Amino acid sequence: MAAGVLSTRALPIALGMVAFFWFVRWLATGRLSVRTPGDWPVALLALLVPVMLWATALPEITRPPVYRLLTGILLYYAVVNWAEAA
Predict the structure, then answer these.
(1) Which of 16, 83, 73 has the alpha carbon at shortest distance from 43?
(2) Which run of H or of E encompasses 9?
(3) Between helices 59-85 and 39-55, what is the axis angle to 10°?
(4) Which of 74, 83, 80, 71 is nearest to 5 (CA)?
(5) What pLDDT, on the 0 to 100 scale, is given for residue 54?
(6) 57-81 burial by CB neighbour count: b if 16+ within 10 A, else e?
(7) Quick one: CA dihedral 76, 3, 18, 84, positive or negative?
(8) Angle, CA of 42, 43 and 47, to the nearest 5°
(9) pLDDT by residue (tens digit) across 56-82?
(10) Residue 49 in this model has a pLDDT that exceeds 90
């Protein structure tokens, strides 16, 4: 996952890895995540992703920040779930 910070080519792989571990957590615990006060703002950010991809004039430049945003959202919930489980 740290490779996504160093190389933009690793961002889709990092996003896939984080999503995979999130899916494994869902299978293990039966829920996607715990509720947090940040759920609504994060949901609004996630809902704006299709708008960003649709409205961009340069998709090859827009995709890496979108991957970083989605990876950051999943990483946020990974930390929240880890803290709740500890």
Answers:
(1) 73
(2) none
(3) 160
(4) 71
(5) 94
(6) eeeeeebeebbbbbbebbeebbebb
(7) negative
(8) 120
(9) 999 889 988 898 898 888 888 888 888
(10) yes
